[in-house]
Amino acid sequence: MALAAGVGVWLTLAAGTDASSAVAVLSVLAVVSTGSAVVLGRPEPLVGALALLGAAYAVILAIDEPPLDGRSAIVGALLLAVGELGYLSLDARTAVTDEAGTLARRIAWVMTLVLLVLAAGATVLVVVDLFRIGGLVVEGVGVGAAATAVGLLVLAARGARGGDG
Predict the structure, then answer these.
(1) Which of 7, 33, 43, 151 is most buried, with most CB under 10 Å away?
(2) Contact predicate 28/43, CB 8 Å
(3) In a domain, 144, yes or no
(4) Whole domain around residue 49: which residue ranges?
């Protein structure tokens, strides 16, 4: 619940003046929905909270219209963390007890997954920005990719001939 509140506060502060009140309302509703999921022990309100936080970010994109928003990878990773940790907390309420250390391992796995998603999102943003800017860097990447493809074809041809080349 604290993570959902933190994401909501961050999105509200990141929003422009035109979008901030709508983002704040959606964020408060998301926190209330997350709290409802915890109190009721049901996953449905958690889904609503994730949708509301996503809608708050969509309001920022629609109203503020940033050209290429670098926060998108962070928002995606944070939404993943809110969802995974929310479901983990609901799952931890079951009557079945796990072996010692299971919860810590699951939290570590969630955080690793969040970091991987953040890295993948940042990589996509870098590639998109490179192609948006264009120029010599994109040409260099294209030449490198073509040279790599030719090199792989040569290796495959040698392997098909029996490797005696």
Answers:
(1) 7
(2) no
(3) no
(4) 2-133
Confidence class for position 122, pLDDT limits 50, 70, 90: confident
The pLDDT value given to residue 137: 67
Cα–Cα dist 26/32, whole Å: 10
* Residue type present at position 12: T
Number of domains in the chain: 1
Q: What is residue 9's predicted lDDT score, i.e. its pLDDT?
A: 93
Helices 71-91 and 102-133, packing angle to 10 deg? 160
Residue 149 lies in a domain: no
Prediction pTM value: 0.70
Residue with tokens 């260099």: 140
Q: Of 67, 66, 53, which Cα lies nearest the Cα of 23?
A: 53
Q: Is residue 59 part of a domain?
A: yes
In one-letter notation, the amino acid at residue 122 is A
At position 30, the amino acid (one-letter code) is A
